[in-house]
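Handoff note, outgoing to incoming analyst
You'll be picking up this chain. Sequence as last confirmed:
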Amino acid sequence: MVVLCFFLTSCTHKDDTDVIRQLIKQGALCAENHDIRGLMKLTSEDFLAMPGQHDHNSVRKILWMAFRHYQEFKVMYPKPSVELESNGLTASSTIYFMIVKKDVSLPKLTELYKDPQGWLEEAGENVDLYRLTLELLKKNIDWLVRRAHLELFRGLGFGEYKRKESDLRLTDFVKSQIQRICHFDHREKSCLFSTLRFKDFSFHSK
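Most recent structure output, in case you need it:
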């Protein structure tokens, strides 16, 4: 009986892990399709994005600006890590990703999907990498994102990232747009907008 319970619990955790990774995949597809509504459906009612403590309305505006800037793109990432809490109702996930032009082909990274360390090492020094940390909760049979924390990193090898402060500076144009939309405080250092690097973002391929 103990073995059976352990087996059933392991299967449930595996299923939940797969569901969360599928949710992440769905989110990436929504982003590529500029589907803001679809992305919001993957979040809980009390969802917040950080840095900056942005709620649904604020995030919609951020995404609209980002999609308008990036235009056609695709999101590339290795297999996300997923950690399930013992209560079975909460979990966390970390996704390292990069944004590239839609027509860029990086077959080596595609092959390394199941090897996150190899993927990040292959990405190397020449790409802008982002780390997205998610806190998730289970509602009925669905998993939803409750918190999302976005950070900008450089590709310096697995676990050896460091923030590049120059990448976090906003152009005067973007600052003025942000200020008009949500009264952006120039003294506030922890702002989700600064992480997105609108004007200075460059696409890379090896």
